[in-house]
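Blinded run. Sample ID left blank on purpose so nobody reads anything into the name before looking at the predicted structure. Input follows.
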Amino acid sequence: MSEDNKILDDNKMIEDEFQALLDDYLSSNHRKKVEVITKAFNLAYEAHKGSRRRSGEPYIMHPLAVARIVSKEIGLGSTSISAALLHDVVEDTDYTIEDIEMIFGERISRIVDGLTKISSGMFGREVSAQAENFRKLLLTMSNDIRVILIKIADRLHNMRTLSSMAPAKQYKITGETNFIYAPLAHRLGLFSIKTELEELCFKYEHPKTFEDITAQIKETADERNKIYENFAKPVRVELDKMNIEYEMRARVKSVYSISKKMEKKQVGLNEIYDIFAVRIIFEIYPGLDEKKQCWDIYSAITDIYKLRPDRIRDWVSRPKANGYQALHLTVMGPDGRWIEIQIRSRRMDDIAEKGFAAHWKYKANKVEEDNELDKWLKTIQEVLENPNPNAVDFLDTIKLNLFAMEIFVFTPKGDLKTLPQGATALDFAYMLHTDIGDSCLGAKVNHNLVPLSKKLNSGDQIEILTSSSQKPQAEWLNYVTTAKARTSIEAALRRERRAIAKEGKLKLEGLFTEEPLQRSMLDKILYYYEIDKKEDLYYQIGNNDIELPQDYAEFYKKKKEDESENLLKRYWKQAVNAMRKPSETAPKEKNESVGDGEEGLSADTEQIDRKAKYKLVETNQGKNFVLPSCCNSLPGDDVFGYINHKEEVEVHKSSCQNGLKLKANFGDRIIEVVWGDYEQYNFKSTVSFTGIDKKGILNNIIARISEDIKVNILSMNISSNDGIFEGDVEVSLHSVKDVQNLCSVIAKVDGINTVHRSTT
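Blinded prediction complete.
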């Protein structure tokens, strides 16, 4: 194709995409401010002219795609669409934020500025840039929620186009997405986006499993459709009698959620019975109560089918914290299969799919006090007031509140309060007020005195006991689960430590009455007590962990040669650190608009080629990798490599929770790895099984293993209770295939109920 034809094709593609964006916007309920969107597009188009993404398409296609997600899938208006079109302009071109404000005004420029600050944030070598970006994201989010909504849209498009990235880069991006963006999308009620983000992460981290489950779902589609139609036919008859406008459809669960359920239950796809759910969405009749309509439909269904009482979920009366409302029930269908049903109004469905943007649309003409999003943002702001100085720890603290299930508890006056599941009496105290938490002495739950670490249950009534002499203790960090409580305790402990250190400094300076304490003398004192930092020295003195001598001349009494040797070591250490180079990362390519800084932990790792596949091998001299105990990976698992502080390559399963955190926080240390020749080398693994206790069952298991498979049994443990036994066998083998064969062999033993590879 000639260059002229390529330019014409590119222009046609860009024009079509922009027109599709305008069509999306014009079909929405927003005021039709097409002029500002067109102006934003024209500026972005000129600014990015000549730039291309790694996929080869013009760079402007990325901002256009993000703007379409913002408009069509999240439901935002012209301000957000314009900001999405401009989100990379300040970072990647010569335009400044002042230019944007002059052309588009303060609202759009503020959002673009927030997005630019998130993307361009680089911090110290010992801090994850991604975690620091997350902190900035939350800071900007607390001012304007549209910043995070556009950032999530940006991440979604990058995930949709991830195939053009190198595998190591894919690991980094999927790790960040699973660790940060999917939980945020969930917390903001963006259900469909959260589901797609998880699905795409799973597709790239477990490609074979993804393909296998997708193929099996396709193969069983006819059978599912038959089950659905048999269920739906009598329901339609009853709903039609009610003279309501509705739609009913079956929705297959995501491959990711199906896989998680298979992993949790250790069963195959054929044993997962709730692969699909039936969704009934009704239009609200003017003047009719929408909750009553939900329960009327519920009543019609339960008149036909038998209800499973333990599976009723009433989120109509009490919505989830992210605004989700629906009535869930499970009934026994005509084919002898349990079927989950979700009943929602059109309003509820919009909020479930598009989150709080839809929520705002429905409350445009009325005032709702203190909605759930406002409560959550208020919590985030309280956390941001006293952030942990370490960005990675801060990120962990915030994540405590992202995916939390909820409980409902009462104050002594009967006020209802919401807390995450697993919250303690101390969490409750800090939720009421930081001062109450700091002075908390104990609690009464349902009028009974309990310790601060007591976990609360829905329906509990809690009274907090306080004392003016009480102060937060370090062990309190083990008692709390909420972000607010943790950050408040950490802040109080830091204040206390600073106060004690100040006293210690005054005590030390009190020794030097004739002349002020000089830096050279302070170094001698640090050496004398074998302490590295002066802050630690002051604290230990103030805390009476160190008893100062009567005369500072005592500090000179250590042998001169010891001091010389110590100083030599110190100078040598400084020289080595000065020579240590930061890890050389490739220049950031413009098309990789994940925008999330990659300067993470610095390391002298030139011996590892990060761009090539790192081959995992074992020789007579040993392995060129290490296997952490967190996931016990084996040859044949989906894995990635992480270069740790010892410059070793750790091998983690793609599904490893520790590995997920590593990918999100230290993406520059993630590498692509491939298993080498491993057949002659041995790995340890454990297989767990349960069954009906029969005489001789253990002998049967051992005999079957010995006959059918060549593995070395290292240990075996079995315990029995009320006729049911649980057991595990640790073996030495070569690969995942050997484990699968072993599970298959054990499963054939009469009396065995379940068998699976243990993950611990």
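Unblinding after everyone has recorded impressions. DSSP finds 28 helices and 22 strands in the chain.
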